[in-house]
Amino acid sequence: MGLELVPSDEEGVAHLRADARHHCLALVAGRSGVLASGFTVADEDALAAAEHELERRGLGVRRLGAASARSRRVRSGIAFDDPFGNRLELVTQQESLARPVAFARASGITEFGHLCLDAPDVHEAYRFWSGTFNAKVSDWIGDAACLMRIDPVHHKLAVFKGDGPGLCHMNFQVASIDDVFRNWHFLVDHGVEIEMGPGRHPQSTAVFLYFLGPESFTYEYSFGVRRIEDDAAWRPRTFDPAEPGSIDLWLGPTSRPTTQPQARDEPAEAATPGTPSGDPAEVPAAALSR
Ligand SMILES: [Fe+2]
After folding, report:
1. Fewest 10 Å CB contacts: which of 70, 100, 217, 246?
2. Can you list the pairs that 140-143 forms with residues at least 24 positions away whose Cβ atoms lie under 8 Å?
């Protein structure tokens, strides 16, 4: 992938960095499964307001303990499950590192791009994300996907239709279309399973490449994502996934990326560092900045 492995004395956790933040992806030793997906909120007041609002809506919310917050390099945070069973976290003040990112490989990564969660009904998922978090739909892919923005980027969050909760993929932006194709050759040369691409999504206009990591998690590189600067003028569009070109403008073969299922809480006595049971060290699979 090319991410920096951040030196750490925390056993069993690999913090991976793509931008100024301490990490945007943490891998925890243990069985496969998504532990949590995290978002940074503005400050402690925003976190408290979110905690109150989520509880008011009947969602079970708990505060991250000190060890969990330390592992995430955040000041504080809360955890809850969305209505579809995806474990989410909201955190404050994730640490930044002053030194430049020491990329493991010249993959051209410029920043974290987006997360894609699964839910059985993407329209219901949109009601949750728009009603609770003010996310805005940028485009629909029929009943298959809802692409949402929380800033000018066409989508920082997507929900794909899936049987159960899980993290469908995590996207990183690269600096040029050349990086996408160089990465493609690199991955093929190294025996990595390409899931889809290179191609171009008509919704975001991004040139994409989806591939499977050794832990069966799907990563995506992309370049050229659309920005929606005039929020009020944008009208979400709906694309039929069965129509040619609706997933890949270049008409390449398409397939649904493999989803990493949401991990279930383990009994406390079985807990190992980094598992979501109890206080010690619950680590976000991904942290998305506001
Ligand atoms: Fe994506």
Report:
1. 100
2. 140/236, 140/237, 140/238, 140/239, 141/203, 141/238, 141/239, 141/241, 141/246, 141/247, 142/238, 142/239, 142/240, 142/241, 142/242
